[in-house]
Prior knowledge:
Blueprint: H1 8-23, H2 30-47, H3 56-60, E1 70-76, H4 87-102, E2 106-113, E3 117-124, H5 130-147, E4 157-160, H6 167-180, E5 193-195, H7 197-203, H8 214-218
Helix pairs in contact: 1-2, 4-5
Amino acid sequence: MPWQPVRTGCELQRVGACLQARFGLSPASRLLQKTCRSVARCAVEWLVPFDRLKGHAALRRGRTSAPYANYFLTLCTAGRLAGLDSGDIAETLWFEAAAMETDHSWRLRCAVLMPDHVHLLIALGERLALTQCIQRLKSRTSRLLRGKGLEWERGFFDHRLRETDSEGAVFRYVYLNPSRAELIRRNEKYSQFRCCPEDWTWFQPLLDEDLPAPEWLSS
Length: 219
């Protein structure tokens, strides 16, 4: 199932409908209910890796830092205040992200700056642990954020990609973030998206003249 956070409930309904049609199961069928519960647990593991009510201690629990592993990361502003995607802040964030690649802290595969959060897909290097990478990025940009009335939200989201995870789905999710948030029109390119040359060679042919494929936006 494609990684579509905002459509998890719809996907579960679709799974249930398909099972009913394919195997003639009734809505009250134990098999149908058990299957949907299993799908829901998988969705929760991937899409909601921590309970916000338990605070950031729950976010840190079980976190690993493996060199050369791929991690999907999300950093948010406190109170989800906007301002990351323009001016000095955007320029500095891209500079610091690139500097961490230069010194082999990580390899930035793709990323997007949204007004109130940042998505990154990185391959971790050997120089720093994952938490140290995020601490460095935040510490080197915090002063500038404060000068604009912003600050980083404490903690961060991370998901280590496994062999069963679709890298293409993650790239597509990152790329489509501005479109789904209606920050740009269908025929516009978003200036705050980045993709490394190695990954761009296979990702670009999936696009429609460097724009989202129409079926991506309708799915």
